[in-house]
């Protein structure tokens, strides 16, 4: 089967975004924390390693390149810290993953939120210089719903309510800040923005609902999250493709939540105004493919069938069989393939080597060529 190559994400052979940090970058970041090198010296190392990473992405055949999130410590917090009215803050406890707890950091409000002059704009400009007629530069950021979740976690709830006693105003300002960022990003040349979102994986997990004393429901949160995400991307610039990646946690090869998409599929797949979904399907924790029948319009689905968490390569024929199974619920031409998540959602990275990381992507490419001819 052969499919005409496209220049708009998602691509048949695709990737979520983050890559393992090279040793020299990790060392430079540590030196910067210790005060032994300057910001300019750190930026120079970041630039060098990103340039090398981009070439590797091109060499393997990816049509959307990223900076690997090499300038970030976290997949989400660094973006929040770059918004106006937000500060980096330590907390008593990190996020709870299976058998591990993350670093204990958060994003906390200091004032009203706005999105102008975000540092990620310059980060994008650097990687965009390596784009060409066939390869686009992709920017990944956490979804607006993820920001709301951060601001309303128990450690932050009081400080958020002190600045935004009216939740309606909070939601409006989050959406407006994102719209400002999106406009400036597009003006910087971006044609593909990916919204990374763990909120959906969180609310389908039964543990999330245990011992709660509020009146929230999975229905009410689903509606709120999709309305907020849609409000943030409303009126997006022409020529900008916006997709979303749904995750259940990715920290040092561990995970945070379990649950099928079924309970949120009407809102997430039917109503979120994105062009495509990068979906985790590497383990049974994500459930089956039945909910893909709810993906509305001509939206595409990128099946995350290859794990970025483990070094062992998946069986090629088994992955192809799973693609065929998914195609029972959505046209195969609307399907694509990628790892289930990035290789380093935080700077610690997952427990595999850089060589194993590239072998995973080569497997995705080989399968894509066999299934779709591209």
From TrEMBL:
Repeat found in the keyword field: no
Keyword Methyltransferase: yes
InterPro entries linked: Met_Synth_C/arc, UROD/MetE-like_sf
Keywords on record: Methyltransferase, Transferase
Pfam families reported for this sequence: Meth_synt_2
GO molecular function, one term: zinc ion binding
Protein name according to UniProt: 5-methyltetrahydropteroyltriglutamate--homocysteine methyltransferase
Organism: Jeotgalicoccus coquinae
Lineage: Bacteria, Bacillati, Bacillota, Bacilli, Bacillales
Gene name of the record: metE_1
């Amino acid at each position: 089967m052969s499919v005409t190559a496209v220049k708009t994400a998602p691509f048949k052979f695709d990737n979520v975004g983050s890559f393992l940090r090279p040793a020299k970058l990790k060392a430079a970041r540590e030196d910067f924390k210790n005060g032994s090198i300057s910001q300019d010296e750190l930026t120079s190392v970041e630039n060098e390693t990103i340039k090398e990473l981009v070439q590797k992405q091109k060499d393997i055949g990816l049509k959307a390149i990223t900076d690997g999130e090499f300038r970030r410590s976290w997949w989400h917090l660094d973006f929040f810290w770059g918004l106006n009215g937000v500060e980096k803050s330590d907390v008593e406890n990190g996020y709870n993953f299976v058998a591990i707890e993350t670093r204990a950091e958060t994003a906390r409000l200091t004032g009203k939120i706005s999105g102008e002059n975000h540092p990620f704009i310059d980060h994008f400009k650097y990687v965009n210089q390596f784009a060409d007629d066939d390869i686009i530069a992709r920017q990944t950021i956490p979804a607006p719903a993820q920001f709301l979740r951060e601001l309303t976690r128990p450690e932050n709830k009081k400080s958020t309510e002190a600045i935004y006693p009216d939740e309606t105003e909070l939601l409006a300002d989050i959406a407006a800040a994102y719209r400002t960022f999106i406009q400036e990003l597009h003006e910087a040349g971006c044609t593909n923005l990916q919204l990374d979102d763990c909120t959906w994986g969180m609310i389908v997990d039964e543990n999330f609902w245990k011992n709660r004393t509020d009146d929230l429901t999975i229905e009410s949160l689903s509606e709120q999250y999709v309305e907020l995400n849609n409000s943030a991307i409303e009126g997006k610039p022409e020529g900008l493709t916006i997709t979303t990646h749904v995750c259940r946690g990715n920290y040092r090869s561990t995970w945070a939540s379990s649950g099928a998409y079924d309970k949120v599929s009407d809102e997430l797949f039917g109503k979120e105004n994105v062009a495509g979904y990068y979906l985790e399907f590497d383990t049974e924790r994500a459930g089956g493919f039945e909910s893909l029948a709810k993906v509305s319009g001509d939206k595409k689905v990128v099946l995350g069938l290859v794990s970025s968490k483990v070094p062992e390569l998946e069986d090629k024929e088994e992955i192809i069989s799973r693609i065929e199974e998914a195609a029972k619920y959505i046209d195969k031409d609307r399907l694509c393939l990628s790892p289930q998540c990035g290789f380093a959602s935080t700077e610690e990275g997952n427990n595999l080597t850089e060589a194993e990381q590239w072998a995973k992507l080569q497997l995705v490419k080989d399968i894509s060529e066999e299934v779709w001819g591209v």
